[in-house]
Structure formats: C-alpha cells, structure tokens
Design goal:
This protein is about 40% helix and about 20% strand. By secondary structure, it is α/β, with parallel strands linked by helices. α3 runs parallel beside α4, α12 packs parallel to α14 and α16 crosses α18. It has four domains: about 30 residues; about 210 residues, 2-enoyl-CoA Hydratase, Chain A, domain 1 (Alpha-Beta Complex); about 200 residues, 2-enoyl-CoA Hydratase, Chain A, domain 1; about 35 residues, no CATH class. The chain binds hexanoyl-coenzyme A (HXC). The site of hexanoyl-coenzyme A has 16 residues, from α4 and β5.
Length: about 500
C-alpha cells in the first residue's frame, strides 16, 4: 500500500477496533444487536453507506468519532432509505450537539430526496454535560420531524431506554415500534417521579411495551425481539413507501375480474342472523382483504375500533373499522384519536381508506364528556373531511347518529358508500327512537309492549332500512358481504387510473 494512504487506513482500523472494544460482551447471546448490526438488518444485503463517521465533539473528555450515533443511507426492498442508530455504549446513547447535527443532516437529506427516515433509538435523552447545546440539538431534530411530517415516512424503533427528549422525536414520527420486555419510553424516569410525586414505579410499569401499547396508546406496534421489530419496519414501509410493485399473495382468492360478483358463503356467514348478536369485525376484514395482508396498528389500544394496513387485489389500503365486540363498537375518546391519526397519516401517504361501519354512536358518559369527547370526536370528523385519498365505506350494521356522519359518510366526502342488507342507518336505534317519538301514544296504550314492537318494526322498515338511504343517494348500492371484495377492488382500480393521470385535487403529476 502506498505510504500516502497508510494514515487514513490506520485511523479507520483504529476506529473499528475501538467500536469492537466498546461493543465487546454487550450485544452477544441475549438477542440484543449492536447499533451497526441493527442497521445491517434493516438495509438490503446488510449494505449501507455511513455518513459523518469521523465527526466528534472534542469538548467532551471521552469524545469518540461518530459521537454515539451511526447515520446511514441504503436501500430497503429497493427503496432509498435514510436511518440513524444510536450507540448506547457511549454515554448511554445520550444526545449532544454533534450527534444532533449528524441526525439533522440525515433528516435534511431524506426530505430533499423524498426518502423515508428510520430512527433506531436507544438513548438517555439530552446529554447532561452539554446542557443547552443538547437541548438545542433536540429542538433542531424536532423541527425536522415536523417539516418531514406527511412528506416522508418517519418510523422509530425503540430498542432499550428512550428517556426525556429521546421520546419526543419518535412521538413526532408516523409510527413507533417497541420491543417486548426491553424497550422503555418515558419523559421522566422512576427516580424523578419518586422524588416529585412520591410514587414508586418500575421501568416496565412506567414505560414498558405493555403500557404504551395497551394504556397510553403511544406506540403502534410491539415486536417480540429486535429482529422482528426491524422486520416490522420493512412491512410498514411496504405499505406507505413501497420500493417495488407489491404482488398480491392472496391464497387464490383474487377475483380474475373485479367486476365479477363472486359468491363466497364463508363471508356471508360472518354476520349473525340476530341483529343484537355480536361478531368479530376482524373476521370480516380478513375475508374481504387479501389473505395474510392485514397488519393491525395499535391492536391492543382502543380495541373498540380497528386500524390496519391491508391489500385488496394487491392494492395497499388503510382499513378503519368499528369493533362491535368491544364496547359495542362505540366511538370514545381513545377510538376517536386512534382512527383520526391513522386516517391523517395514511392520507399523507396516499393510501385509500376503506371503512367498515358498525357503531351505535359516540360513547355516552360523564367521564367521556368531561374528558372532551367533543374535542376528540371532532378530530375524527376533521380527518375524514380533510382526507384527499379515495374513501370507500361499507356500512355493515349500525350507523347511528353522529357516528354515521363521522365514519366516512358521503357528506364527509366518501367516494363510494356501500351498505349490507343488514345495515341500520338512522339518528338512533329503533327502540330508543320509538320511545321518544311515540312517548305519548305508548303511555296511553293498554298494550304498550305490543305497540312498541309494532312501531319499532315500522321504524326499521321506513327509516333504518338501507334502501331508504340508497333511495336518497346517501348510499350508492346495497351489496352482499360476498360481493364486497370485488366491488371495493373495482373502485380501487378506477382510482388507480385516476392517480395515473394526476393526483386528485392537486393536479400533481405522479
Ligand atoms: C449523559 C447519560 C445520560 C444523559 C445516561 N447516561 N443518560 N449521560 N446524559 N442523559 C450515561 C450514564 O452516566 C452511564 O454512563 C451510561 O449512560 C449508562 O447509564 P446507566 O444509568 O448506567 O444505565 P441504565 O441503568 O440502563 O439506565 C438508563 C437510563 C438512566 C434509564 C436512561 O441512565 C437515566 O435515567 N438517564 C437519565 C435520563 C433522563 O432523565 N434524561 C432526560 C434528560 S433531559 P457511564 O459512563 O457510567 O457508563 C431531556 C430534556 C429534553 O432529555 C426535553 C425535550 C422536550
């Protein structure tokens, strides 16, 4: 080797040795990957180009090249992706000004190249020794998170501690993935909480994956280990920022002609004969969408609604649904937030929204009113009203009151509304409605039960029947469950044709 190059080659080798020494014994055996291995798992062929490898903060006595973060660019399923991976072995992955500068550089490049950003996070937050420089660093990152929101996909994976400022960058991103039993996210840790409020709490009970997936709703996906967490990122990217044309793998259920109305007895059997009997909306979604394509988001939080990525005849869609099995499918504060955010995110990434409606309405209750169901419920109305993507709605059973309007109604801009023959569309359910509008008659009747039954039947036929809504143009067609897949597919195919020529409303060529 030429003597001229020896210096840099030795510097590089020293850097690799120092990293190996820091990693030694820390990441082997327990399924914990090193920051570099995490990146290698993410990128196609384990290949990526590292950026800012020699950047360091010389004012820090223990300064290392890279300043505790590896920033990189590579390909994920063929798509250009930027990523950063924090190095927990250096000052707990805490963020100082050099680390922040490196992350900001990646965010700026990603935005300029319209490429997704993946944040692989393990950090104690703002680096205490760097004071205001560290705080400014987070501010710079947050402002890029905001500027990138809706423009490029931003996904965070939390591998271990994610404290203080470290938790807000993921919170400003589109999706957060946690690793079961390992990740813990909090703004202030157990020690500070004990000192301030006197409450004693463990790391897991404060910010573990069970808390954030089931109670706080902060995270969207939980993976059983680090490798699955990274795989989950690739799956999400496959829906919101696909690198290659995704071919449908639908187990043979794909209709050869989307206009062909196939008979599928299984789908028709999902809905029970009795209108009051519950059923699992997941079964209907699974039957309508391509086999194995449904990936649920926030599956353990606000389970009275369902938000999921899926494919119909190979086309990626966002599915939003009420779940009659939980709280009868009522829309409460958490469900409003969950559906509204998912709709807005998917709208940004041009995913058509397919809505399955079965809800008796917004959840009544003092706690809900005082908690601001008006404020939170409005987010759902806003999200549907604002979404510019193709919106397809299927009214399965109940669509009552404000929830009828909110769940992708024609009035809020649905492109197509289908209703099953079982649909009940009205201001409220039959029993409640008759008790109000025929109050005097019922009070004066000698056989009030008989009168109530007759009046409810009459109300069902003349007010709630989907043919009434179809006759007024609020519903486009009455379809059988077995016809739904083909009908939705036809709409999506038409939408594809529109998208090919111009992006709706914006006239932006694709
Ligand atoms: C500097 C830090 C650090 C930090 C951890 N370390 N956090 N160094 N700044 N914020 C260092 C430790 O000194 C230690 O260094 C190493 O990282 C590992 O830390 P441990 O405590 O030994 O690890 P562990 O027991 O796993 O606990 C991890 C932890 C804990 C839960 C993250 O370190 C912790 O509570 N850190 C502080 C978290 C925090 O309060 N951050 C908020 C900062 S304020 P050595 O040399 O001993 O290995 C903030 C404000 C931003 O972020 C607001 C934006 C809105």
């Amino acid at each position: 080797m030429s003597g001229r190059f020896r210096g840099i080659v030795e510097r590089r080798a020293a850097l690799e040795q120092a990293e190996a020494a820091r990693y030694a014994g820390k990441f082997d055996g327990s399924g914990k990957l090193s920051p570099r291995q995490r990146l290698a798992r993410l990128f196609d062929g384990g290949l990526f180009e590292e950026l800012g490898r020699f950047e360091r903060n010389d004012s820090e006595p223990s300064a290392i090249a890279g300043d505790g973060v590896i920033t990189a660019v590579g390909r994920v399923d063929g798509q250009l992706v930027y990523a950063y991976s924090q190095d927990y072995t250096f000052l707990g992955g805490s963020l100082g000004q050099v680390q922040a500068r490196k992350i900001v550089a990646v965010q700026d490049l990603a935005l300029a190249h319209a490429a997704p950003v993946v944040a692989l996070i393990e950090s104690g937050g703002a680096r205490i020794q760097e004071g205001i420089d560290a705080l400014d660093g987070y501010g710079q990152i947050f402002s890029r998170n905001v500027a990138s929101s809706g423009a490029v996909a931003q996904i965070a994976v939390i591998f271990g501690s994610c404290a203080g400022g470290a938790s807000y960058a993921p919170a400003l991103m589109d999706f957060i993935v946690m690793v079961e039993g390992r990740s813990r996210m909090f703004v202030t840790g157990p020690d500070v909480i004990r000192a301030v409020t006197g409450e004693a709490v463990s790391f897991e009970d404060l910010g573990g994956s069970a808390v954030h997936s089931g109670t706080s709703g902060v995270v969207h996906f939980v993976a059983k280990d680090e490798v699955s967490a990274i795989e989950r990122v690739k799956t999400i990217l496959g829906y919101i920022a696909p690198g290659r044309e995704v071919v449908a793998s639908d187990g043979g259920r794909r209709s050869p002609n989307p206009f062909w109305r196939n008979k599928d007895a299984d789908i028709d059997a999902i809905l029970p004969d009795l209108p009051s009997k519950s059923y699992d909306m997941h079964a209907l979604i699974d039957a309508v969408c391509d086999a194995g394509s449904v990936v649920e988001c926030q599956e353990s939080w606000a389970q009275n609604c369902i938000t999921a990525f899926a494919r119909i005849d190979g086309r990626a869609v966002a599915v939003v649904a009420n779940q009659p099995k939980v709280k009868a499918g009522c829309i409460d504060i958490d469900a409003s937030d969950k559906m509204a955010r998912f709709i807005r995110t998917c709208d940004s990434f041009r995913l058509p929204i397919v809505t399955f409606v079965d809800t008796p309405g917004y959840l009544p209750g003092v706690a809900q009113e005082r908690g601001g169901i008006i404020r939170h419920g409005a987010k759902l109305l806003y999200a549907y009203g604002e979404a510019r993507v193709c919106k397809l709605t299927v009214v399965v059973r109940k669509a009552y009151g404000g929830a009828y309007i909110a769940m992708g109604s024609k009035a809020l801009g649905a492109d197509r509304v289908f209703a099953f023959p079982t649909a009940e569309i009205a201001v409220m359910g039959g029993d409640a409605a008759v008790r109000i509008i025929a109050k005097k008659e019922l009070a004066q009747s000698d056989r009030p039960d008989e009168l109530l039954r007759r009046k409810v039947e009459e109300y069902r036929a003349t007010v709630m029947d989907p043919l009434v809504a179809a006759g007024k143009g609020y519903v486009d067609d009455i379809v059988l469950p077995s016809e739904t897949r083909a009908r939705l597919s036809a709409c999506l195919m038409a939408e594809d044709d529109v998208k090919r020529s111009f992006f709706r409303h914006g006239n932006i060529p694709l």
